[in-house]
Structure formats: C-alpha cells, structure tokens
Amino acid sequence: MSIPKPTAAELELLQALWPLGQATAKQVHEAMLGDKPDLAYSAVLRLMQIMHTKGILTRDESQRSHIYAPAQAQDALQSSLLKDLVQKAFAGSAKALVLAALRNGISKKERAEIEKLLKEEKK
C-alpha cells in the first residue's frame, strides 16, 4: 500500500516533525508555534490524527500521550513528490525543472552551492 501525498498543511506539520523524529502532538504544536503563533493545539492534534488514519504518520499508543512519527523518511517523501512534480509539471524533464528553479528566485549562496556540487561531480 502506498502512502498518499500529503496536503500543504500536512507537509508543514511534517517539516516540524522530521527534525524531532517522533513526538507527541504537544511537542509538534510547540515546534510549529514559532512560524504560526496563532496555531491551536487542537488543530495540530486533529491533523495528526487524520494523518495517522491516512498512513502518513505512525502512532505509538502504549503511553498516555500518543507518540507520532513520520511513516516515511523526509528524503524518501521529497523524492516521491519531486518525481510526481517532474512528471506532471515538466513533462518528465528533470532538466526543465532545474532550469525553472535556477531562473526563479535562487540566491547567490544557493547558486554557489550548486556550482560546487556540479564541479565535484565532474571529478
């Protein structure tokens, strides 16, 4: 069974959860408050419950406070989403994706990092 693609809100939650590895809803809520100070705990808990039902999160119910963890590693999910984006938006062309990314809002620092990686690949 494949894991469904997360929504934008689910991706935001995963961005907070991945560095933690596993966490309670309270810990995820606290991690998200920096970017979203008005975010309600109940909204985080409900979203995590939905994500568990969809298979995006796993849940350990052995303790009073349930412990949630991503069902997929960050790099695996990002790779899957990227493949989907390349197919849908760029007609299967990774080159077109890279060129679009380079033309739209890349910082000088990011460009330098990319150039360094490309030079290392040539060696």
TrEMBL record:
One of its GO terms (molecular function) is DNA binding. Gene3D superfamilies: Penicillinase repressor domain, Winged helix-like DNA-binding domain superfamily/Winged helix DNA-binding domain. InterPro entries: BlaI_family (IPR005650), WH-like_DNA-bd_sf (IPR036388), WH_DNA-bd_sf (IPR036390). GO terms for biological process: negative regulation of DNA-templated transcription. The keyword Transcription applies. The keyword Transcription regulation applies. Keywords: DNA-binding, Transcription, Transcription regulation. It comes from the Bacteria. Belongs to the BlaI transcriptional regulatory family. This is BlaI/MecI/CopY family transcriptional regulator.
